[in-house]
Amino acid sequence: MKERILSFCWQHLLLLFSLFIMTVGVAVCVRSMLGSSVISVLPYVFETAGKQAMVPALTIGQYTYIMNGVLVLGQILVLRRQFEWVQLFQLLIGFFFGTLIDVNMQLTSWLVPVGFWQQAAAQVAGCVILGIGIALEVCCGSVTMPGEGFPVAISRVTGIDFPKVKIAVDITLVALGVLSCYVFFGVWQWHIIGIGTLFAMFFVGTVVRVVSRHLGWFKQLLAYRPGFRRYIYGLARYIYNRKGEE
Q1: Is-contact 197 37, C-beta < 8 A?
Q2: Entry pTM
Protein backbone atom coordinates (compact mmCIF):
# COMPACT_ATOMS: atom_id res chain seq x y z
CA MET A 1 0.00 0.00 0.00
CA LYS A 2 2.82 2.41 0.93
CA GLU A 3 4.56 1.62 -2.34
CA ARG A 4 1.41 2.40 -4.32
CA ILE A 5 0.96 5.72 -2.51
CA LEU A 6 4.58 6.68 -3.11
CA SER A 7 4.31 5.64 -6.75
CA PHE A 8 1.15 7.74 -7.17
CA CYS A 9 2.77 10.79 -5.54
CA TRP A 10 5.95 10.51 -7.60
CA GLN A 11 4.01 10.00 -10.84
CA HIS A 12 1.90 13.09 -10.24
CA LEU A 13 4.84 15.19 -9.11
CA LEU A 14 6.41 14.49 -12.49
CA LEU A 15 3.04 15.20 -14.10
CA LEU A 16 3.03 18.66 -12.51
CA PHE A 17 6.54 19.17 -13.87
CA SER A 18 5.24 18.18 -17.33
CA LEU A 19 2.31 20.60 -17.03
CA PHE A 20 4.73 23.35 -16.07
CA ILE A 21 6.77 22.72 -19.24
CA MET A 22 3.58 22.67 -21.32
CA THR A 23 2.36 25.96 -19.92
CA VAL A 24 5.74 27.62 -20.53
CA GLY A 25 5.20 26.70 -24.17
CA VAL A 26 1.64 28.05 -24.13
CA ALA A 27 2.80 31.34 -22.61
CA VAL A 28 5.66 31.78 -25.09
CA CYS A 29 3.27 31.17 -28.02
CA VAL A 30 0.94 33.85 -26.63
CA ARG A 31 3.88 36.26 -26.24
CA SER A 32 4.89 35.71 -29.87
CA MET A 33 1.86 37.77 -31.00
CA LEU A 34 1.58 35.54 -34.08
CA GLY A 35 -1.24 33.44 -32.66
CA SER A 36 -1.64 31.33 -29.56
CA SER A 37 -1.62 27.54 -29.41
CA VAL A 38 -4.95 25.83 -30.04
CA ILE A 39 -5.69 25.07 -26.37
CA SER A 40 -5.47 28.76 -25.44
CA VAL A 41 -7.31 30.31 -28.41
CA LEU A 42 -10.73 30.64 -26.76
CA PRO A 43 -9.36 31.59 -23.31
CA TYR A 44 -7.19 34.27 -24.94
CA VAL A 45 -10.16 35.71 -26.82
CA PHE A 46 -12.27 35.82 -23.67
CA GLU A 47 -9.45 37.30 -21.59
CA THR A 48 -9.05 40.08 -24.18
CA ALA A 49 -12.82 40.67 -24.18
CA GLY A 50 -12.72 40.76 -20.38
CA LYS A 51 -10.21 43.62 -20.46
CA GLN A 52 -12.84 45.57 -22.41
CA ALA A 53 -15.57 44.69 -19.88
CA MET A 54 -17.50 42.55 -22.39
CA VAL A 55 -17.25 39.42 -20.20
CA PRO A 56 -15.94 38.78 -16.67
CA ALA A 57 -12.33 39.99 -16.37
CA LEU A 58 -10.64 36.63 -15.83
CA THR A 59 -7.15 35.52 -16.83
CA ILE A 60 -6.22 33.16 -19.65
CA GLY A 61 -5.59 30.46 -17.06
CA GLN A 62 -8.98 30.95 -15.41
CA TYR A 63 -10.79 30.81 -18.74
CA THR A 64 -8.73 27.73 -19.61
CA TYR A 65 -10.05 26.03 -16.49
CA ILE A 66 -13.62 26.93 -17.43
CA MET A 67 -13.07 25.53 -20.93
CA ASN A 68 -11.61 22.34 -19.46
CA GLY A 69 -14.72 21.99 -17.28
CA VAL A 70 -16.90 22.29 -20.38
CA LEU A 71 -14.80 19.62 -22.14
CA VAL A 72 -15.20 17.25 -19.17
CA LEU A 73 -18.96 17.89 -19.21
CA GLY A 74 -18.88 17.10 -22.92
CA GLN A 75 -17.27 13.74 -22.14
CA ILE A 76 -20.04 12.94 -19.66
CA LEU A 77 -22.71 13.82 -22.23
CA VAL A 78 -21.02 11.81 -24.98
CA LEU A 79 -20.13 8.71 -22.95
CA ARG A 80 -23.09 8.75 -20.52
CA ARG A 81 -22.97 5.44 -18.62
CA GLN A 82 -19.61 4.60 -20.15
CA PHE A 83 -18.04 7.59 -18.43
CA GLU A 84 -15.59 6.53 -15.74
CA TRP A 85 -15.97 8.82 -12.77
CA VAL A 86 -12.25 8.66 -12.03
CA GLN A 87 -11.95 10.86 -15.11
CA LEU A 88 -13.31 13.73 -13.02
CA PHE A 89 -9.71 13.92 -11.85
CA GLN A 90 -9.23 15.78 -15.13
CA LEU A 91 -10.82 18.79 -13.42
CA LEU A 92 -8.00 18.89 -10.88
CA ILE A 93 -5.37 18.47 -13.58
CA GLY A 94 -7.13 21.20 -15.57
CA PHE A 95 -7.06 23.49 -12.54
CA PHE A 96 -3.29 23.08 -12.16
CA PHE A 97 -2.85 23.57 -15.91
CA GLY A 98 -4.81 26.84 -15.87
CA THR A 99 -2.99 28.07 -12.76
CA LEU A 100 0.40 27.28 -14.28
CA ILE A 101 -0.54 29.17 -17.46
CA ASP A 102 -1.10 32.28 -15.36
CA VAL A 103 2.17 31.71 -13.50
CA ASN A 104 4.10 31.40 -16.73
CA MET A 105 2.34 34.37 -18.31
CA GLN A 106 3.83 36.36 -15.42
CA LEU A 107 7.25 34.73 -15.77
CA THR A 108 7.37 35.51 -19.51
CA SER A 109 6.13 39.10 -19.19
CA TRP A 110 9.64 40.23 -20.18
CA LEU A 111 9.31 38.53 -23.57
CA VAL A 112 8.25 41.19 -26.08
CA PRO A 113 9.50 40.12 -29.51
CA VAL A 114 9.99 42.95 -31.99
CA GLY A 115 9.59 42.33 -35.69
CA PHE A 116 8.39 39.26 -37.55
CA TRP A 117 11.56 37.17 -37.20
CA GLN A 118 11.72 37.56 -33.42
CA GLN A 119 8.02 36.73 -33.24
CA ALA A 120 8.55 33.68 -35.45
CA ALA A 121 11.46 32.53 -33.29
CA ALA A 122 9.31 32.89 -30.17
CA GLN A 123 6.50 30.93 -31.80
CA VAL A 124 8.80 28.08 -32.84
CA ALA A 125 10.38 28.00 -29.37
CA GLY A 126 6.94 27.97 -27.73
CA CYS A 127 5.75 25.10 -29.93
CA VAL A 128 8.91 23.06 -29.21
CA ILE A 129 8.54 23.59 -25.46
CA LEU A 130 4.82 22.77 -25.61
CA GLY A 131 5.51 19.60 -27.62
CA ILE A 132 8.14 18.45 -25.11
CA GLY A 133 5.71 19.06 -22.25
CA ILE A 134 2.93 17.11 -23.96
CA ALA A 135 5.27 14.17 -24.63
CA LEU A 136 6.28 14.14 -20.94
CA GLU A 137 2.64 14.44 -19.82
CA VAL A 138 1.58 11.49 -21.96
CA CYS A 139 4.54 9.45 -20.69
CA CYS A 140 3.38 10.00 -17.10
CA GLY A 141 0.40 7.76 -17.89
CA SER A 142 -2.05 9.55 -15.59
CA VAL A 143 -5.53 10.84 -16.40
CA THR A 144 -5.53 12.64 -19.74
CA MET A 145 -5.99 16.37 -20.10
CA PRO A 146 -9.57 17.43 -20.96
CA GLY A 147 -8.33 18.63 -24.34
CA GLU A 148 -7.42 15.02 -25.19
CA GLY A 149 -10.13 13.35 -23.09
CA PHE A 150 -12.98 14.87 -25.12
CA PRO A 151 -11.67 13.61 -28.50
CA VAL A 152 -11.02 10.21 -26.89
CA ALA A 153 -14.66 10.09 -25.77
CA ILE A 154 -15.93 10.94 -29.25
CA SER A 155 -13.58 8.38 -30.78
CA ARG A 156 -14.87 5.65 -28.43
CA VAL A 157 -18.49 6.36 -29.28
CA THR A 158 -18.15 6.92 -33.04
CA GLY A 159 -15.33 4.49 -33.81
CA ILE A 160 -13.47 7.22 -35.70
CA ASP A 161 -9.69 7.17 -35.24
CA PHE A 162 -8.50 9.44 -32.43
CA PRO A 163 -6.08 11.51 -34.58
CA LYS A 164 -8.91 12.45 -36.96
CA VAL A 165 -11.22 13.37 -34.09
CA LYS A 166 -8.43 15.37 -32.40
CA ILE A 167 -7.86 17.39 -35.57
CA ALA A 168 -11.60 18.01 -35.93
CA VAL A 169 -11.89 19.18 -32.31
CA ASP A 170 -8.86 21.47 -32.68
CA ILE A 171 -10.30 23.00 -35.85
CA THR A 172 -13.61 23.51 -34.06
CA LEU A 173 -11.91 25.30 -31.15
CA VAL A 174 -10.07 27.60 -33.57
CA ALA A 175 -13.29 28.24 -35.52
CA LEU A 176 -15.10 29.12 -32.29
CA GLY A 177 -12.24 31.46 -31.44
CA VAL A 178 -12.56 33.23 -34.80
CA LEU A 179 -16.34 33.49 -34.36
CA SER A 180 -15.85 34.90 -30.85
CA CYS A 181 -13.46 37.53 -32.26
CA TYR A 182 -16.17 38.78 -34.59
CA VAL A 183 -18.82 38.66 -31.85
CA PHE A 184 -16.72 40.66 -29.37
CA PHE A 185 -14.55 42.87 -31.55
CA GLY A 186 -16.14 42.80 -35.01
CA VAL A 187 -12.81 41.86 -36.57
CA TRP A 188 -10.37 38.96 -36.66
CA GLN A 189 -7.70 39.30 -33.94
CA TRP A 190 -4.60 38.11 -35.75
CA HIS A 191 -2.35 38.27 -32.69
CA ILE A 192 -4.67 35.73 -31.00
CA ILE A 193 -5.44 33.49 -33.96
CA GLY A 194 -2.86 33.91 -36.65
CA ILE A 195 -0.28 32.11 -38.71
CA GLY A 196 1.34 30.93 -35.48
CA THR A 197 -1.85 29.10 -34.50
CA LEU A 198 -1.91 27.26 -37.82
CA PHE A 199 1.79 26.45 -37.44
CA ALA A 200 1.23 25.14 -33.90
CA MET A 201 -1.61 22.84 -35.03
CA PHE A 202 0.80 20.83 -37.15
CA PHE A 203 4.27 21.43 -35.69
CA VAL A 204 3.48 20.59 -32.05
CA GLY A 205 2.32 17.09 -33.05
CA THR A 206 5.58 16.56 -34.93
CA VAL A 207 7.60 17.60 -31.88
CA VAL A 208 5.59 15.21 -29.68
CA ARG A 209 6.28 12.30 -32.03
CA VAL A 210 10.01 13.02 -32.21
CA VAL A 211 10.46 13.64 -28.48
CA SER A 212 8.42 10.54 -27.53
CA ARG A 213 11.08 8.33 -29.14
CA HIS A 214 13.73 9.65 -26.77
CA LEU A 215 12.08 9.46 -23.36
CA GLY A 216 13.81 6.37 -22.01
CA TRP A 217 15.47 8.54 -19.34
CA PHE A 218 12.08 9.93 -18.27
CA LYS A 219 10.56 6.47 -18.04
CA GLN A 220 13.46 5.41 -15.80
CA LEU A 221 12.79 8.50 -13.70
CA LEU A 222 9.13 7.51 -13.42
CA ALA A 223 10.16 4.06 -12.23
CA TYR A 224 12.58 5.48 -9.66
CA ARG A 225 11.57 4.76 -6.04
CA PRO A 226 14.33 4.14 -3.39
CA GLY A 227 15.68 7.66 -2.94
CA PHE A 228 12.22 9.17 -3.03
CA ARG A 229 10.96 6.69 -0.44
CA ARG A 230 13.87 7.43 1.90
CA TYR A 231 13.24 11.15 1.53
CA ILE A 232 9.55 10.83 2.43
CA TYR A 233 10.28 8.55 5.40
CA GLY A 234 13.11 10.80 6.56
CA LEU A 235 10.87 13.85 6.37
CA ALA A 236 8.15 12.03 8.32
CA ARG A 237 10.64 11.04 11.04
CA TYR A 238 11.94 14.59 11.25
CA ILE A 239 8.42 16.01 11.72
CA TYR A 240 7.62 13.32 14.29
CA ASN A 241 10.81 14.03 16.27
CA ARG A 242 10.15 17.77 16.22
CA LYS A 243 6.67 17.20 17.63
CA GLY A 244 8.18 14.98 20.33
CA GLU A 245 10.59 17.74 21.33
CA GLU A 246 7.73 20.21 21.60
Answers
A1: yes
A2: 0.84
